[in-house]
Amino acid sequence: MKVHLLCVILLIGVLHNGYAQSFDRANYQLSVKKTSQKLTLDGQLNEDFWQEAAVAKDFFQNFPFDTSAAIAQTEVRMAFDDQNIYIAATCYGQSPDEYVVASLRRDFDAGISDFFIAYIDTFQDGTNGFSFGVHPLGGKREGLLADGGNRGVDTDWDNRWFSKVYNTNEFWQVEMIIPLSSIRYKQGATKWYINFARADRHLNETSTWVPVPRNFGVASLGFTGAINFAEPLPKPKTNISLIPYLTGNYSRDFVTEGAADEYGWNVGGDAKIAVTSSLNLDLTFNPDFSQVEVDEQVTNLDRFEIFFPERRQFFLENADLFSRFGFTRIRPFFSRRIGISTDTVTGLIVQNPIIYGARLSGKVNRNWRVGLLNMQTDADRARGILGSNYTVAAVQRQVFKRSNIAGIFVNRQVTSDSLNDFTLNTNDYNRIVGLDYNLLSEDNKWNGKFFYHQMLSPEAKPDQYAHASFLRYSVPRWEIVWNHEYVGENYDPEVGFVPRRNHWRLEPSITHTIFPSNQVINRHRIGFYSNLYWDTEGTLTDQFLEASYRINFMNTSFFGIWFNTTFTKLFSDFDPTNTDGEVLLSGTEYNNEGLYIFYESDNRKLFTYSIGGGFESYFNGDRTSLEASVGYRFQPYGSITINAEYNRIELPTPYNSADFVLIGPQLDVSFTRTLYWTTFLQYNNQIENINLNTRLQWRFQPVSDIFIVYTDNYFPEQLQPKNRSLVVKMTYWLNL
User: Of 6-10, 183-187, 678-682, which range is least confident?
Assistant: First the structure.
């Protein structure tokens, strides 16, 4: 704890000494005039106000180099009125036969597509913002930025906005209309921070208006210019949206003898209410998430639980305010815990209906963010499931330029018992209180986190807390990372994600990047990574040391080789194949070594592939692994991809050996920019299952959809069916 405190003191000193920004924002200012002229959304800049608008130009490269002007130049203009923000971009240097487009699907993959994207920081805090982008064939993507944009864009967020693209042989052009009601901002503001990014995949170039060093992504909010509005932004008009849904469903259980086919329907909905221009209230009643895409299966050879991200729309806006407390493997709150429970009859994880949910989140002012969530789940006595109430309160205060201090309170309270369907007189609860300090320097070179979380439960036990520190220093040629974690033996946040307890962890790493001056290789990366665990009594239980060498080629292909050594001391009995075979005994120790090689082809091509494989000693045996992916993009309508993974584990008698195969063909088709079809087939012999999930989505109005979702599960042997379901769902976004 003394070391932990010393790190905080040193970092505060670093912040006070300051790091000069690598650019002068005074050189990147864009005046934005107010207009009374109506915009005809056609991608052509025919309106008078476009001709009079100031121009953001002279874009600078971010990739493959960050020391020269962009080859494919871009010009951006902006305007506004009482309802909307208008953005127009002219993207020079591309003809239609040079376009690279992943698909017409909403939220297209920007990593393999041409694009123009605006990153908007409405509160000028350098940490949170909005992203709106298009590709040259009119595909759209919008998303949220958190943690300074260093984690990229969360495109699961969805909202109303409009765009139109116009193509010529010399350039492509886009007009955007972004309703002020779709974003959060301070009423009366006269300035926002912003950056614009452009990708020309034919040239393999990304560029930005404000230069962004190549060791950072173009979404980084540490590098933004200022847009200055001619008049203060107005107070939004009444901003209430109702999003009702209606579903019909059919399901059949082939395993349970005598089970009857089930038919049903459901109705519910969400509401979004703008309490202020920057604070939003989300409500949900009897929510249904049947349209959410299926999780991609993985082969689980780990001793611990696997994390799958949240995809449900209700939880996404300002999600970082609730979900980014702690670390990836020490989360005090994980929203996917809400709405699932254990069937005490079968022991299976099942969906538990949510009766209602309410979530207030957003900015109070530039320095303060708040979040309050309350959700109630229903009891299901036939399955032995009790109703529960979930409450989460979060507050965040900005300090220095881009850092913040945040506090969280999480409460899971059982609200039913053997006699009552609803009661607050139960002593079954689990609570977490925590404090996080999130560091982000003005120039983006330093970022990190320090936290302490305490669990409260009816039976007070020792060691019910966790604390950790993380610090990264990043410049183009060096990345140095330090991480420590402590998780107490009795720290068990039931609404969080903590797959491993009772340990100290150290995780330092260092990476050196070399940028050669040739037209073949973009960068060499040499890295050393270590991951060490001790139990709370100081005994080393796990040690993973890895040396790596990676090459990124100019044509986007990639090659890497990794060598590792591993030490494991089991603290519980474990079957390395997870096949209920003979177990390795607690307390036994194993030293292993491994080598892995991977190659990925040029992702701009229509035909792409990747292949990797490795060999390692594995506990008291050996493991051979192979993985491959083959894809074909039938531009611009979509792609077909086949991912395959094979693991061969060979252990001496009497332990089980095993072959694990995971194959996942996926078909993704965009018939138009509003009609999408996705089919995902997964064969996983580890869980003896073949899963088919096919989903048709028609966006018949902005943020209004009809979904048809069909799911089948089979036993691999003779393709005997397990269960089958069909869901038809309609949602409609209604502005009041």
Answer: 6-10
